[in-house]
Amino acid sequence: MVRNEALTLELCAVLLGKGEVNAVRFGMVEGIPGVALIVERFDRRDGGNLRCEDFMQVLNRRPGRDHQGKYNASYEDLGAALEFSSAPVLDRRRAFLRLAAYVLVGNVDCHMKNWSLMETATGLRLTPAYDALNGYVYGAQGYTTRFGLLADGERAQWDSHDRTRLLDLAARIGLPRKAAEAALDSLKRKKEVVFARLDRPLGLP
């Protein structure tokens, strides 16, 4: 899973740009066998803590004792949380691009605690992507291959996502169709770079 998350975030960085994805690297941690994923804290700056709230906190919702409440949220809820951004139009586009990238890399576990707003010089803004991995590959082991957010009360299977469904999700989070189509076209231009990365050994079993 360590290598999976590292690769998934690397591919997201290719699709979205490095500044849009949390920085990670492989390393060793004393006392822990095997390779570890060293995750940079984006909410630390100049020795201090920046205000950072995941979307469950933003919407004042509790995850519950079983922590399953984070899945009891819709794409419309995602859009509602983005209303608290100081630049909601820009962050809706960033969020939509991220959703589309998550479809491409199989990151089905994109629940509401994996989205956050963070304090910046211009107010609260969407944080870089974090905690992303291809969960779809674990379907044969009994893990869900449905996405972590609801559309009309249901979580859609990964392989049911296409351009039409993505444009529907854009409308649900409040992004106009023309902006969504332009965003998808920008991802399409990254195709050759992504395929070139996939032609190299992945380091995954």
From TrEMBL:
- Which InterPro entries does the UniProt entry name for this protein? HipA-like_C, HipA_Ser/Thr_kinase
The HipA-like C-terminal domain covers 2-189
Which keywords belong to this entry? Kinase, Transferase
Q: Which GO terms describe its molecular function?
A: protein serine/threonine kinase activity
Q: Which GO terms describe its cellular component?
A: cytosol
Protein family (similarity comment): Belongs to the HipA Ser/Thr kinase family.
Q: What is this protein called?
A: HipA domain-containing protein
Source species of the chain: Azospirillum doebereinerae
